[in-house]
Amino acid sequence: TWQVLAIYTVLAANLSEQQVLKQACPSCDASQLCNCSSMGLDFIPPGLTAKITVLNLAHNRIKHIQSQDLQQAVNLRALLLQSNEISSIDEDSFQPLAKLELLDLSNNSLAHLSPLWFGHLFSLQHLRLQGNSYRDLGQSSPFSSLRNLSSLYLGNPQFSVIRQANFEGIELLDKLWIDGSNLSQYEQGSLKSIKEINHMIINLRNGNIFSDIVKDLLHSVTWLEVTEIKLPVENKTLVQNSSRPFRIQKLTFKEAFFTDQTISQTIVLLKEITSLKELEAINCVLEGKGMWKTEEIARSGQSFVETLTITKIMIQNFHLFFDLEGMESQINKLKRLSIASSNVFMVPCKLARHFSSLLYLDFHDNLLVNNRLDETICEGSWPSLQTLNLSQNSLKSLEQTAEYISRLPKLNNLDISQNNFGEIPDVCEWPKPLKYLNLSSTQIPKVTTCIPPTLEVLDVSRNNLKEFGLQLPFLKELYLTRNQLKTLPGAAPIPNLVALSVRRNKLNSFSKEEFEGARVGAVHLSLMECHRSLVVSLICVLVFLVILLLVAVGYKYHVVWYLRMTWAWLQAKRKPKRAPPKDVCYDAFVSYSENDSDWVENTMVRELEQACPPFRLCLHKRDFVPGKWIVDNIIDSIEKSRKTLFVLSEHFVQSEWCKYELDFSHFRLFDENNDAAILILLEPIQSKAIPKRFCKLRKIMNTKTYLEWPAGEEQQQMFWENLKGALNS
């Protein structure tokens, strides 16, 4: 018995835990994904089972993780605990989670990290620990057992020390993110133990340890991103005693602060990293006027950077900025240059002529105007340029813009969108190789032969065009979105067109001639595209006719009435099967056909209601509540009667009302296997003759005995005695 008691106790405890889990986190019920975030929980709910693979407990008030909290959740793949108040974790809390791939403990109150937490997380790939309150990672590595780790996020505003052994055990990371905004001590060699890092992001305000970190990453990191740094004025080398080849290819500065002096020094130091091919500066501040140490920069040799991207650089008094004379020797190897959203208004001609290898130039969202463009794109400048983006500037004259750009002998891709040209001349001069031209959002009212005939791709979207009739024999793609076109461009002038976009125009009809091109002629438009208004009108008419037909059919066949009756029947099935004794008013409810009313009302009622003691019968003619819906009357009367008398006859089985009374009462009368139903056979009825819709009656007559109304008076006396006995039973 004690074993049974123990099993019962365990089952009861499990059931109780399941109830607590369902109450604390309803989404956990019968689901592999358990989302319990932002529910005000201060504990991990009990009852977690092996079927759960994702558990989200983020944004709660959990303070402590105990050993038993996750014991049964052995199949968890993701555990999200960020943004709680967790300050302590039992050492073996995560021990059962050998299949866990993602663990997020960020933005909590952990004052230290224990290697024992992660000792059994052999499958862990993503670990997020940033935003806690630990000041270091301990004396050893908390991550030594995480051989499959792919991404690691750590650090916080209090994080101040990185020690040599902190990253031992980690060999390869796709992403390493460190908040070292107040990092003050870095032991040389700490990050060297990681053999390969694809992308590392470090928030580092202390520029004095920047060079030490870079030295450790030269052979492991592919892309290094440094934020909020303010570089010091020092000449510490970045590659001291480091053997080549290096791995680092891209360096990004975000929200960094430079002066004329530190930027000159940075350019010199970065040349030491011979593998560096891409340099990026985003949302940085440059305090100075461009008085760079150009002679020192030139003496330091060639730069290996091929791609330079500058976005949203802030230069106070940028209009006083020097022209960077002396930097010519540093730019002739650049292949891609992007300076966006940085108030560029001119590039000196002398400097522009030294971009001899540049293939791609992006000056979008700047302050270039036509008279300065003449200086920026002077004769002999940008000799190798193939792609030019001048969108979102302040260019006003398309004719002048085309003239200056025609000086670029190899240009084939030009974007001058979002400049307010307003007008377009009849003739323009363009570079001969030009194949791609973007003139979208330039306010041009029409297209003219200013558009070069050599184009393969043309975008004139978002203008005021009312027609398009250019002869462009090589054009393959044409974009005309958001214009005022009423007809399609002719097919014959653009015979090689393979892509056409005409969305958001005023097209209302198409002519056959518009589809005479060899390829465009194969296009078949749907009826909706050709006659939209007609199709919509026809659909509305059809919908109206269908609704009208449904209303007529419903009215003829009393559909609404049947629906109401079905609803009442469903409601009746929900009610308790027995009414309370105080609500029972009748000995029997009588269900009969109107054609049998003479026998019921003049013979049976008189015999039973004048008996001693008298029986109380419920008849629909006499006892139904006036004004109440008949279905509700039937249901209430059956519920308030101890018995139900069914007076069966040929007329009964032909009556719809009798069928409904039988249906409404069936679930109470017969499902309980009681004797609440009394059947009186007023005249012989063959079971086979009963219609199929009276299936319940057929079943009843095959399983229950019934009283037959006899012809002789002697047998009738026995009939009444048997009926009274049945009513009293």
From TrEMBL:
GO terms for molecular function: transmembrane signaling receptor activity; triacyl lipopeptide binding. SMART domains: LRR_BAC, LRR_TYP, TIR. It is a single-pass type I membrane protein. The chain crosses the membrane at residues 534-555. Disulfide bonds join 28-34, 349-378, 428-450. One of its GO terms (biological process) is toll-like receptor signaling pathway. It comes from the Eukaryota. This is TLR21 protein. It comes from Leptocoma aspasia.
